[in-house]
Amino acid sequence: MNFLARLGDRQDPKYKSRLEKQPEPRSIENEGGAILQKLISMGKGEARMVYTLLGILSKKPQHFDYVKSILFQYAQIRFMYQKGQFWDDQLDLDFQLRQVS
User: Fold this and answer.
1) Which of 11, 25, 76, 86 could bridge across to 29 with cysteines, CB 3.0–4.6 Å?
2) Cα gap 13→33, rounded to integer Å
């Protein structure tokens, strides 16, 4: 969140040329709203994160592309942890215990 607050206006030529001619969105980009809704429904923390980011982006919409890609990655990781059930919180505890000894 602090990163976005401190991030200045976009200067890259790709963004400026995109403002002049809007490209056809890719199919995954059309699903962006559904992915955000899914993130919001994952829990209070995720809902707070998404709404906070959307509030910041309402003031700095030029950074939406950055945030969108990060949120999509976050949603993919959460999906894999939830559906794949390969997250083992004991791994972190074991690692921490080894660091102490």
Assistant:
1) 25
2) 27
